[in-house]
Amino acid sequence: MPRGEPATELSDFEKQRAANIAERDALLKKLTLEAQSTGLFKKPPAFKSGVQSAKKKAPAKRVKKENEAPAPRRTSLRLAGITAESEVAKRKAEVDYQAEKAVQQAKRVRVSGDLDLGNIIVSGQKWDSSGLLGIDATSSPPAKYGRTFTAEDIKNTTDKDLKAMREKMSGLQLWGSWEPNRIKITPERIYSMSFHPTETKPLIFAGDKLGNLGILDASQSPPKSVKVEDDDEDAEEDDPDPVITTIKPHSRTISAMHIHPATPSKLYMASYDSSIRALDLEKSVATEAYAPASTSDDEPLSGVDTALENPHVLYFTTLDGYFGRHDTRMAGDADSSKNATDLYQLSEKKIGGFSLCPSQPHYFATASLDRFMRLWDLRHLSKRDPSPIGEHESSLSVSHAAFNAAGQIATSSYDNTIKIYDFGAKGLDSWKKGHTLDESDMQPTTKIRHNCQTGRWVTILRPQWQASPQSPIQRFCIGNMNRFIDIYTSSGQQLAQLSGDGLITAVPAVSVFHRTQDWVVGGTASGKVCLWM
Fold first, then answer.
1. 391 by DSSP, 3-state: which?
2. Mean pLDDT of 471-477
3. Could you tell me the domains of the chain?
4. What is the reported pTM?
């Protein structure tokens, strides 16, 4: 302000504003002093040189919850005409929550009794057992992935028999009637698959995450397309998808399936809903072959198998570490039903897979989350204290253990290896009751490096032998995370790497061989299948 000029007087508004600011500052200062005196605001301790700061506490490990029921959706109270935060609103929210919770729980509860296939069909054609089985049934652009087994490997093979087998397996062709992305056999992710033992046509079964069973007859051919007139804008070319039947025999994941060659009209399915159902393909009925005494008992099943000599006894494993033996002939008798099932606690953690030895069915192998592959003898298996005749520990969990008729076991493990154990060469056929194996006897004869890190959205990779190969060379197939299916011999030599020339857009994680024919099928997380013949 220039000297000599009078000071400008503040207006009444500016005076009031300045007074308000001063009053606010005084109040804030007072509140700050009171907070400091009560200890609410404490200055952090000064950092002292030479003293190491405390380590950051590691976050708690998240535990995956299997098939957790989804939380009920929130609804608008305003649209419902209810005032928020009122007692009516609270009661309505609680009632809605409990109702939705009951609905979700009801979907997961096992349905007991026989199920007619016509009543549980989800999609596809009406069930027709006569036409489906055949006359002998009762008797986005794909990513580029590099191959690790090529025609050059076959060319450089010096062993004539091995070379011939490699040429044969690598010569399998993808089913050309429909592209794999059009063959959606189940609504959700495929967990288990099986071929029907018939040799007249490839009949494929696939079980998914929600308990659906898809059935595909791969002998069908696309109908001849109908030519569309150029002036008919509303018409579309008739190009239907393959005929697939989908039913829902279980309320939860179908984890495994099995068909005994002596009873080919029955498909056994094990499920996380704690039951095993027998799908009678002739009568079109899914009967309950095994289930716990109460529908409230939660004992998710991870596998099912039968011995070649006896199709009436079911063997199964659970996610709680149990191994079970159930005689279906005793289940219908009220007096003997209690004795129809024997349960053995073989592991404190999940048993992911198991199988009986086809040639010596009193021996069976289990693979568990506790990192062990164990070999057991049914002839002296104690309920009180079951002991294996031998075990081998891997660095990470073992996903599956598959026996073949030659007494060899193939396992897949999260340590990214496929291990092969040759107990046939160690005299399995001549072992007496009570025979045990030491640590050296349980060492694998072959290890194959194989990526088994499937993650959360891809089904765990499991090896599966061809049950009755039409050659002396034992072989098994397993999914490849690079969207192939690999085929190996029992000595670890690769026979083929099946691909689809850019048509395979997802990992065929679930892969199985036909029992006798050189047919291989793979199932993906999108419920689609790839078939090579």
1. strand
2. 95
3. 106-139+151-220+240-532 (2.130.10.10)
4. 0.76
